[in-house]
Amino acid sequence: MTGSNETRILMTGIDLEPFVVLTGAGISAESGIPTFRGDGGLWEKYRAVDLATPESFQRDPELVWRFYNWRREMVANCMPNQAHKTLAEIEHLIPDYTLITQNIDGLHYAAGSQNVLELHGSIWRLRCSACEERWEDRRAPVPEPVPACPACGEPARPDVVWFGESLDIKILQKAQQAAARSRLMLIIGTSAIVHPAAAIPLVARNAGARLVEINMEATPLSPYVDETLLGPATEQLAEWWLRNRPHN
Ligand code: BV8
Ligand code: ZN
After folding, report:
1. Pocket test for ligand 1, best of 49, 101, 163 (most atoms within 8 A of CB)
2. Measured in angstroms, how far is the CA atom of residue 152 from the centroid of ligand 2?
3. Which ligand is nearest to the CA of 131?
4. Does residue 218 have a pLDDT over 50?
5. Whose CA is nearest to atom 71 of ligand 1?
6. Which atom in ligand 1 lies closest to the alpha carbon of residue 83?
7. Residues 51, 142 within the same domain
8. Is 159 helix (H, G, I), strand (E, B) or coil?
């Protein structure tokens, strides 16, 4: 193959671009961040309905802030792992590349990824519960029991998407459009249960993309993928990339 704008062909003869990746909590597990649904998962201790919903914030904002402060302190002490770093390397090597994440921990950016579609927001951003104000805040923990909006003084909340809330439509459309034109999608560390994120791989499949799933176990998506690599993301992604990275 010659010429930079040629579609790169994998050593195994499949298209490598447009290259799309969807990650979930499992990619951060080896950084020490508990997943949501595994054993010892976050939601086991705290029922999602009690904490990650607008109703719970309305009812008890201090409780919800205690939960997010606990997560902020945990994430602040965690480093990106080899899987995050491999994805940052792929972004630098593959021009037509889109990284979509359900995670709010910011570890893809910490590993050097530059363009990340954060479907469910970021734990490091706050937004006002009343006006449009939103801002970066890296304090772990946020000291006030319920921080106030700097613009209007109303209660501030984590700038994340809670259950029952719709995602940022622009970010979701970008993710769906990337999937709709993809030739290859890696799905890494997601239980493929939470919608609308869980439907994104099917958009890629309908577009004729090759789907490669990396997980510790089979998921509802597994029957629809071309390849399921079972094992920790740090190992499985590095080995897959070693087998398939372009050598020119
Ligand atoms: C919406 C931000 C509507 C907050 C999160 C029935 C059918 C379909 C949909 C629904 C339904 N009932 C309700 C819904 C809607 C609901 C939903 O999907 N519920 C699920 C539970 C059924 N969805 C919503 O509410 C969404 N909004 O639908 O709005 C609407 C429309 C119009 C107008 C108004 C409203 C919003 C969903 C977003 C919720 N927010 N997070 C926060 O994080 O605090 S979701 C939360 O789950 C996280 O973002 C997390 O990323 C996400 C998904 O979980 P995973 O990432 O997959 O993590 P999980 O623990 O589940 O799995 C980890 C995987 O990793 C496992 O498979 C494990 O085997 C693997 N693993 C572990 N270790 C490793 C590993 N893999 C590799 N290596 C390892 N080392
Ligand atoms: Zn405000």
Report:
1. 163
2. 4
3. 2
4. yes
5. 26
6. 78
7. yes
8. strand
Clarify whether residues 136 and 240 are in a common domain. no
**When comparing pLDDT for 42 and 76, which is higher?**
76
Averaged pLDDT, 55-65? 93
The finding on whether 216 has its CB within 6 A of some atom of ligand 1 is yes
Taking the centre of ligand 1 as the mean of its atom positions, its distance from the CA of residue 191, in whole angstroms, is 8
Q: Which residue range is the domain that position 135 belongs to?
A: 35-77+129-160
- Least Cα distance to 96 among 188, 171, 37, 15 occurs for 15
120 is catalytic: yes
Q: How far apart are CA 32 and CA 107, in angstroms?
A: 11
Any ligand 1 atom below 6 A from CB of 164: yes
Report which DSSP code applies to 50: H
Q: What global pTM score does this model have? A: 0.93
Radius of gyration of the chain (CA): 19
Structure tokens at 143: 């000291």
Q: Which amino acid is at 188?
A: I
For residues 71 and 84, state if they share a domain: no
User: pLDDT tens-digit profile of 10-38?
Assistant: 445 567 899 999 999 999 999 999 887 76
Query: Which of these is catalytic: 92, 120, 195, 247?
Result: 120
Q: Are residues 217 and 181 in the same domain?
A: yes
Same domain? 242 vs 146: no
| CATH number of domain containing 150 | 3.30.1600.10
